[in-house]
Design brief:
single chain; 1 helix; ten-stranded antiparallel beta barrel
Length: 172
């Protein structure tokens, strides 16, 4: 009987911890919920113009937000077909905090670690600071209920960010 009482006491102590741990991710998602859905976009920049689409969907019982992106780039002079760029980004609440982080991977072999700052209509993914490599910033801004402005900017070491590609996306 004493053993059962001890076990019950331990379970009761654990309940508030689990409730708080479960609430934190839900709160963390609120500023980026505007990104959830399927999007079709077009844009321009140094690499050339292109068109593509991406999705932002919750996965793993709402524990992560996954972006899957596919772009068809306009062929360069002399090329028959343009390149296809695909990437995957996993966004997750930082353990023990209400801040979001993201990990980016693409078919060119790039891996970018992002800190995420967001309000209800704007999300900024900025790569971790390093004095040896460029920094990257991906910004999404909701312009209306169905249109996102998107900008990817690069900052060489010791220099400010400059837009590399930009475009818009419409919710499907």
């Amino acid at each position: 009987m004493k053993r059962l009482a001890k076990l019950t006491g331990l379970l009761l102590l654990a309940l508030p911890y689990h409730a708080n741990a479960a609430d934190a991710p839900i709160e963390a998602w609120k500023p980026v919920e505007f990104l959830v859905g399927d999007w079709v976009g077009s844009g321009s920049g140094k690499p050339g113009e292109g068109a593509g689409e991406f999705s932002m969907k919750f996965d793993l019982d709402h524990k992560i937000l996954v972006r899957r992106n596919r772009n068809q780039l306009v062929p360069k002079p002399g090329e028959k077909n343009g390149a296809i760029h695909e990437d995957l980004m996993i966004i997750y609440p930082q353990p023990g905090k209400r801040q979001l982080r993201a990990e980016f991977f693409d078919n060119e072999g790039h891996v970018i670690h992002y800190a995420v700052s967001a309000t209800d209509h704007k999300a900024i993914f900025q790569s971790d600071d390093s004095s040896a490599v460029p920094k990257f910033r991906l910004t999404y801004e909701l312009r209306s209920d169905n249109v996102l402005a998107i900008e990817f900017a690069i900052a060489p070491p010791g220099r400010p960010f400059q837009a590399y590609v930009s475009g818009t996306a419409r919710r499907k």
